[in-house]
Amino acid sequence: MRALKLRRYSKRTIKSYVDWMYDLARYYMRATSELSRDELQAYLYHLAYERNLSAWLANHL
C-alpha cells in the first residue's frame, strides 16, 4: 500500500486494489503471496468472463 501512496494513487483507487486482493485471497482460500502466475491468470479470466468485469479493468488489477 505504501508504494501506491508514494505513486500518489487516490485513496479510492488504493481501496479498490486492496478490495480486489482480499477477493483474490478469498477466491483461492489462501494468501495472495502463495499464488502462482497461472492462478492469477485464472482469476482474471474468472473476473472477465464469469463476473463480466470489463477487460480493461481486469488488465489493470
Automatic annotation (TrEMBL):
**This protein's UniProt keywords:** DNA integration, DNA-binding
> What Gene3D superfamilies does the database record attribute to this sequence?
1.10.150.130
In what residue span(s) does the Core-binding (CB) domain sit? 1-61
Note the InterPro entries from the entry. CB (IPR044068), Integrase_recombinase_N (IPR010998), Integrase_SAM-like_N (IPR004107)
Tell me any Pfam family this protein matches: Phage_int_SAM_4
Kindly provide the name given to this protein in its UniProt entry.
Phage integrase N-terminal SAM-like domain-containing protein
Query: What organism, scientifically named, is this protein from?
Result: Thalassobacterium sedimentorum
